[in-house]
Write a structure and sequence with these properties.
The complex is a heterodimer. Chain A is an alpha/beta fold. Chain A is built from 7 helices and 20 strands. The chains are: A alpha/beta, B alpha+beta.
Chain lengths: 416, 240
């Protein structure tokens, strides 16, 4: 028996010896970069660039259901009045109900043919080293606090977080932002529910390295263990936003998605560049949201993050950013006084993107019934952009209390 | 339902005016703007129709504290087809109204959750001599409310409108028939532009006929009886 066991051990060792170099060697076929060379970019300029290429307005056919939104109008600290559209029902109406928005998750498999090999980022593929055995990026997204309730408290330690409800993270962030308006109680019936379905996986194939797409090998310590197939360890695909966006629009059309729905594409092991994908300075947009026409079809895309590539980013960090921004600014053009020089925005920006000023600032992690701990991003309250008085929970200006005052006009920007 | 429509449809005001003349013949209808002025002896609490957010269908029947049945209808001028119960915040386990009613009060919300469904009509099983409630527009800001009653003789009263304060705080309005318990139904609505006939109504108060203030005719009979009793008593005393 001892000899047999020893033989087995030798066999396993030999087998592992054959596999491990493969596992850690595949990425060496690619241009190697250190994750520290990667930085998160604001999707704002890139999406603005996209809009320029679109028709002025895609007018939906008569009778086409539209996204449920409400209009706000607010006089800001600069004396100007700003109006825009937010998803759901107005929290300022005296009656509170749940508004349900259909969300269609679209798994998007990206294949980049480069150096004679297909490099596949597959959100439905296994990646036990990063996701745990039996899990996929899509499955973990479906089970995440983006679409499932948990007990959530917000407002930061000012002095203590306030329980805002047993609800999803996007709804909790919305309720926290309009806390006074919804009745300042966790029992308020005001909710924005996201009713999720998942579309069949869609596939896009690109040739690399080109300005449209490129696959990199990653140094540093990566969580992946796959040596072949999809989601190969220590790799990262980058796709030019100008290349992928028309493909997303075509998929939305092909799937028959209507403007009342929010299609949300899920990437894994792939991110987006603002322009030429081979220029690292153009990388990395982890997700974005956009809309075709006013009003029209809104949509979003984000990576599910393996957790070891970008500092301060894991699992649903980027997804939470995009979903919440879509809620507060579904068309991407809700105007605000210029703000900036904060979060992921080194310049000035003038729209109601509640995630951008706090990119890199995590909300306290949330552990779900699947025992996975998720890492959503902290979000700025509506009030941060407009007024020195907050109607948000705890009277602060972001849902983890990082912002204690409203935005300063940009330039120079920053926060009070 | 034909009576409901006739009762409150704004375009029927001209026709209503004709009825008013008839109504005025026999009944005097006065507006009251406070619960105290109504001096109710009965009330109908909407909590019996369900917890916060319960759908209230046309024809739902509630029962007043004194046992009078109250059947509610939504005319749907705002497009809604039914109503909802709504509890003023803060309250547990759920609340869906933030307007300044007493916290925990259960309201009847003339909305299907998307569109307003006013006017709100309440039909009494037994006619009353007065009824009223506090109501408030769903939309923030000031509003204009109106009230009207259907009398047991089939006539309707003239439409009475009342403006809220600038904040749009809950507004009490009701009507009293000083001639007797002749009110078969009462209707309420919010009519200012953009209101979408969407509002919430608090507890319905009424003046129950069994204990209502006697009509002058009744008083006369009652007085005559007393006089007769007094005269008989005087005769008996004189015979002794």
């Amino acid at each position: 028996m001892k000899r047999k066991a020893l033989l087995l051990l030798v066999c396993v060792t030999v087998a592992l010896g054959a596999v491990l170099p493969l596992a850690f060697g595949q990425s060496e076929k690619l241009r190697q970069i250190d994750p520290s060379q990667l930085r998160q970019l604001s999707h704002e300029p890139a999406v603005k660039g996209l809009s320029k290429g679109l028709p002025k307005a895609k007018i939906p056919a008569l009778g086409t259901p539209t996204l449920t939104t409400w209009s706000y109008s607010i006089v800001a600290y600069d004396g100007n009045t700003y109006t825009g559209q937010i998803v759901g029902r107005s929290p300022f109406l005296r009656g509170k109900v749940t508004t349900t928005i259909p969300v269609v998750l679209i798994p998007l498999k990206i294949t980049i043919n480069q150096n004679g090999s297909p490099w596949v980022g597959d959100p439905l593929g296994a990646d036990p080293g990063c996701l745990g055995a039996g899990n996929t990026a899509v499955g973990l997204t479906q089970q995440s606090p983006l679409f499932n309730p948990s007990n959530i408290s917000m407002g930061g330690n000012t002095p203590t977080p306030t329980f805002v409800g047993n609800t999803t993270y996007p709804d909790a962030a919305l309720r926290a932002s309009f806390w006074q308006a919804i009745g300042a109680t966790a029992s308020s019936a005001y909710h924005l529910a996201l009713s999720v379905t998942t579309a069949p996986e869609q596939s896009l194939t690109f040739r690399g390295p080109t300005s449209g797409a490129v696959e990199y090998g990653l140094g540093g310590t990566q969580c992946g263990t796959n040596g072949s197939g999809s989601n190969i360890a220590a790799t990262l695909g980058v796709v030019n936003i100008n290349t992928i966006d028309p493909a997303l629009q075509a998929i939305i059309t092909n799937l028959g998605i209507t403007p009342n729905q929010f299609p949300f594409f899920i990437l894994y092991y792939d991110v987006i560049s603002d322009g030429d994908a081979t220029n690292l300075n153009n990388c990395c947009i982890l997700g974005y949201h956009n809309a075709l026409g006013l009003p029209g079809q809104s949509y979003g895309i984000s990576e599910y993050d393996p957790g070891t590539i970008f500092v301060g980013v894991a699992d649903i960090t980027a997804m939470s950013h995009e979903v919440e921004e879509w809620i507060f600014d579904p068309t991407g053009v809700n105007p605000t006084p210029p703000w900036g020089n904060i979060g992921q925005q080194p310049n000035c920006q003038n729209n109601l993107e509640v995630g951008d000023p706090l990119s890199g600032s995590e909300f306290p992690s949330i552990t779900m019934p699947n025992s996975v701990t998720y890492h959503p991003q902290e979000m700025a309250y509506f009030w941060w952009f407009f007024t020195p008085v907050s109607g948000g929970v705890n009277g602060v200006f972001s849902n983890n209390g990082t912002f204690l005052g409203n935005a300063k006009a940009c330039p120079p920007g920053g926060t009070n | 339902m034909s009576k409901c429509v006739r009762l409150c449809r704004p375009c029927g005001l001209v026709a209503l005016a004709l009825f008013v003349a008839a109504a005025a013949r026999a009944d005097t209808i006065n507006l009251v703007t406070s619960q105290a002025a109504l001096a109710p002896n009965d009330s109908t609490n909407w909590a019996q129709l369900g917890a916060d957010g319960t759908v209230v269908s046309n024809g739902a029947v509630a029962t007043s504290a004194a046992g009078n049945s109250v059947t509610v209808f939504f005319d749907g001028f705002g497009g809604g087809t039914n109503g909802l119960t709504s509890v003023e915040c803060p309250a547990n386990p759920s609340c869906s109204w933030t307007g300044g009613f007493n916290p925990g009060d259960t309201l009847l919300w003339a909305s299907d959750g998307t569109n307003g469904s006013g006017a709100l009509l309440a039909y009494f099983g037994a006619a009353v001599s007065g009824a009223g409630l506090a109501l408030q527009s769903d939309a923030p800001g000031a509003f204009t409310a109106e009230v009207q009653v259907l009398l047991t003789n089939g006539n309707v009263s003239s439409l009475v409108t009342l403006n809220s304060d600038a904040n749009g705080d809950p507004l009490f309005l009701g009507l009293v028939d000083t001639t007797g318990a002749n009110i078969a139904a009462i209707g309420f609505d919010i009519v200012n532009s953009g209101s979408d006939h969407d509002f919430a109504a608090d507890t319905l108060y009424s003046v129950n006929p069994t204990t209502a203030t006697p009509e002058p005719a009744s008083l006369f009979l009652f007085g005559s009886a007393l006089l007769g009793m007094g005269l008989k008593l005087r005769q008996r005393l004189a015979q002794r």
